[in-house]
Amino acid sequence: MKLNERSVVHYATCDSPADHTGFLCKRMERHHHNHHVPSYQRRWFILKGNLLFYFEERETQTPLGLIVLEGCTVELCEAAEEFAFAIRFDSSGGKSYVLVADCQVAMEAWVKALSRASFDYMRLVVKELEKQLEDAQRSLAASHKSPKKLSSGRKRHLSNPMMISIQEHPVILENGYSTWDSSCTHAEMASSDLSEGFLKPPPLPPRRKLIGSAVGGAFLAGSASATQESPVSPETTCFSKLHNWYGQEIAEVRREWMERKKTVEIGTH
Amino acid sequence: MRYNERELLSLSRQPAEKAAEVLMRAPKKGSALKKRLVKLVVNFLFYFRTDEAEPIGALLLERCKISKEEENVFSISFLEEPERKYYFECDTEEQCQEWIEVLRKASYEFMRSSLIFYRNEIQKMTGKDPLEQYGISEEARFQLGARKL
């Protein structure tokens, strides 16, 4: 099987971050019937993502070898040497690589780093953070809904925010566009090594609508409608857009309050 | 460079994130478009002859560029040699766009950047580092490394 070896070799020593580095002794894989005492070679190791590279020397530019860390476990092992551990693969006959660290601290650091090197581990962490971001956005939305409950009165007041929202549509679009620009810049900075065409992190799933027992049906319908019409919704992953959206919502609430105040004054006359 | 080929072959037999039969051309001179089964598993794109169980080759999708070429065609090239392109011709334009989208997100480095992005957004909203509760906030894996300019 051919590998895009030149690219892999380049990746080994390019400026993308290494997750762990250090010297380890690697047990030689020689097979002789009479060879009872295993021998070890001291090598410079670089862990990047799910790939463990090893080099003749620290300064060497081309790795001697690569271990792809998918489908393996990392475990301490009983060897003549202290501070030894093994990378064991479940498939293909249970092959394992025995490595020896210089000291206890180094061994523990390597075992920890290698245990979390798989692609699926990173994927799980990303999914967890996606979920937490969604939860944080939801609780922020909930805290902003509280003031609105106070102003949920007559039906015609609910229609006003929607009309105002429509009238201000160009302004919101402009703000949304501007925010989007800054978002892209931020994302691009964070992802400078990613391939061209990277626009944004993976989208969050649509937010489930919360049903508040204290909220009237009319308010809920109005709220849902307003959310659907807004070009910048709280489902976005970008905090600055979210912040801007809630700024708009607060402005609407204030307008609504002023309208109600005016109505009361008219009633007085 | 030696590598654990048997384990990589075992990886190629794992369920794919995405797989399809396409026409593929390697960056060698005079290379022709050939029918291949391509299969994305984690950050590796394996390619097979359509009737064989073992892949002919694999591309590690790190520091690569996925480009739209002419209709139904996209290419993969690597940052250190941008002119050497692997070409892939799909059956439809829609399939082509699907592959481009998936491949642009296939690398470990993309995953890392997404994680850092989410971590920063959560920290801005809640004032707390979401990784601290798991005791992994200090790991090198979750930081942006120093970059040469």
Automatic annotation (TrEMBL), chain A:
One BP annotation, GO: endosome organization
Coiled coil region boundaries: 119-146
InterPro entries assigned: Boi1/Boi2-like, PH-like_dom_sf, PH_domain
Compartmental location: Early endosome; Recycling endosome; Golgi apparatus, trans-Golgi network; Cytoplasmic vesicle, Clathrin-coated vesicle
Primary localization class, coarse: other
UniProt keyword annotations, A-Z: Coiled coil, Cytoplasmic vesicle, Endosome, Golgi apparatus, Phosphoprotein
Record domain PH: where: 17-119
Cited function: Plays a role in endocytic trafficking. Required for receptor recycling from endosomes, both to the trans-Golgi network and the plasma membrane.
Family: Belongs to the sesquipedalian family.
Name used for this protein in its record: Sesquipedalian
Provenance organism: Pantherophis guttatus
Gene designation per UniProt: PHETA2
From TrEMBL, chain B:
GO CC annotations on file: cytosol; early endosome; recycling endosome; trans-Golgi network
One Pfam family in the UniProt entry: PH
Highest taxon of the lineage: Eukaryota
GO biological process, one term: endosome organization
Location of the PH domain: 15-108
SMART domains: PH
Database matches in PANTHER family: PLECKSTRIN HOMOLOGY DOMAIN-CONTAINING FAMILY J MEMBER 1, SESQUIPEDALIAN
Protein name per UniProt: Pleckstrin homology domain-containing family J member 1
Source organism per UniProt: Pseudonaja textilis
